[in-house]
Amino acid sequence: MVRFLCLGTIGLALAAAFVPTPASWIEFGYSRRAYLSLQRSLTTWSNAVPIAVTDLLIVGAVAVVAIGAVRWLRARRRVGVWRASGHAVLVAGTAAAAIYLLFLAVWGLNYRREPLGARLDFDRARVTPASVLELTQRVVERVNTLHAKAHAEGWPAWEDLPAVLGPAFARVQQQLADVRPVVPGIPKRSLLTYYFERAGVSGMTDPFALEVVVDRSQLPIERPFVVAHEWAHLAGYAGEAEANFIGWLVCLQGPPAAEYSGSLVLLMYLLNALPSAERAGMIQALGEGPRRDIMDIQRRASRGWPWLQRPVWWVYDRYLRANRVELGVRSYGAALELFVGTRFAAGWVPVDRREKPAKGRGMPRPEKRTDR
Questions:
Q1: CA-to-CA distance for 355 and 123, rounded, in angstroms?
Q2: pLDDT, tens digit (0-9, with 9 covering 90-100), for 285-322
Q3: Is 271 found in the same domain as 230?
Q4: I need a labelling partner for 186 at 20 to 30 A (CA). Which of 2, 167, 216, 329 fits?
Q5: Same domain, 100 and 131
Q6: The model scores a pTM over 0.85
């Protein structure tokens, strides 16, 4: 009976991994309903825990593996290596299958929802060298304008970001889907912080506890975008392109410090997409303050260990592809295509595909915001 249950669990996990699931079912039955209800309860609970639940799960997983190894050693003496190993493989396979099913139920099915671009007024034909350059010029102007005010306003502490950035996060969620907003996660320190810093990982969303853990060595100017990106994952947008896109929107619709943080990250993506001559011209157009901030971010990022970063990002690439993200880690860059190709109303509000532009008009230029 036990063996039957084990094999059944493994079979169910394999079916869940490979059987096609209609994106519309996931979108309206899971991502906009069941998941959001679970998220509000689970993140509210994990926010109330003073330490990272992720750390408790890691310690628990290490303990379980250690206990399993001790049991295998004892079984090997009793029944021999082959029988003990066969039993261990069955138990490990069953545990992996159960964890995978839990992962899908709690958060992982969001990888299979409808793509955000299908919902927005997005057109890949808008993504041209000219449109990228024009957006870069606007963002350069904006970071030059915002720099002094953002620095004078100061940067929220990690714990204060839910209160400071939460209203913009709620607005963006309702602009993208008419749903009750999710609970923002308090960005927590973790046992993984040192690993994050060296591996070049700014943070992560725990798919089991639905909490956010971050690399707290990130600079204050980076905090708002890092947290907004992870909150996008909490809202059920699993793909990195969509999380970057939403992170930018949350920051651009937020207070000046957040807008500056998101604009600076967006600018770095844009500069990397430009030919070298145009990139040099845009860098020259940057004020001394924003240029210094970008250099500070680059210096902070250089503390990573390349020998660790390469395998970490290779593994993450395979993880994304296994969850049906065809571009793997390249999906981070695809966020820029989504941003440039989407039509916006004033104030960086994305336009729904069902809303048709006035005759003879293309993508409207978002209204420039004055300092607040």
A1: 14
A2: 999 999 999 999 988 888 876 766 667 546 645 655 66
A3: yes
A4: 329
A5: no
A6: yes
